[in-house]
Design brief:
The protein has 151 residues and is mainly beta. The longest helix is centred in the N-terminal third of the chain and has 10 residues. The chain starts with 9 loop residues before the first helix and ends with a strand. Helix content is 9%, strand content 31%. Strands 1-7-3-4 form a four-stranded antiparallel beta sheet. The chain has a four-stranded mixed beta sheet with strand order 6-5-2-8, with no helix packed on it. It is globular, with a radius of gyration of 16 Å. The protein contains two helices and eight strands; from the N terminus they run αβββββββαβ.
Length: 151
């Protein structure tokens, strides 16, 4: 949908007002949402996942980025460390090669706590946001790394 853009017809504006009353235009914020892993299986706190951002491949932005976890309906779910998102201001620990792994799971990933995004026990949704997205996002060249179920 092209919410927030001038010139939208009355039906698009009405749909946006009902579903996304405070949406940003893509030049202000870009959003990617998923409820499935790389294989297409639904995300569930029953499993452990990793999202690997290669070195230099964090979401390009001119403000900040964040990865948020919610239940399938978009509501925050309480967790033992009261953490609901991670991002460029979270003190993420890089790997020796400069890449970043985010551990998305219900149980504490011992030794990787700074990069842990606690998952609820059931199904969940991930939303990646880039505020004042960079040129690669605006040009459609940036690709979000997949969520991978760990073995």
């Amino acid at each position: 949908m092209k919410c927030g853009q001038p010139g939208n017809g009355i039906l698009v504006r009405a749909a946006c007002a009902k579903v996304l009353p405070a949406t940003n235009v893509v030049q202000e914020a870009a959003y990617w949402t998923t409820t499935s892993d790389i294989t297409g299986s639904g995300l569930s706190g029953e499993y452990d996942y990793i999202q690997h951002f290669p070195a230099g491949q964090l979401p390009p932005n001119n403000a900040f980025w964040s990865l948020t976890i919610t239940d399938i309906h978009g509501y925050m779910v309480s967790n033992p460390i009261n953490r609901y998102s991670l991002g460029d201001r979270s003190g993420l620990a890089p790997n020796p090669d400069g890449s970043i792994d985010i551990y998305i799971q219900n149980r504490n990933p011992v030794g990787h706590e700074s990069n842990w995004l606690p998952a609820p026990t059931g199904s969940f949704k991930l939303t990646l946001r880039a505020y004042l997205p960079g040129k690669a996002v605006l040009d459609g060249e940036y690709h979000v790394p997949p969520v991978i179920k760990m073995q």
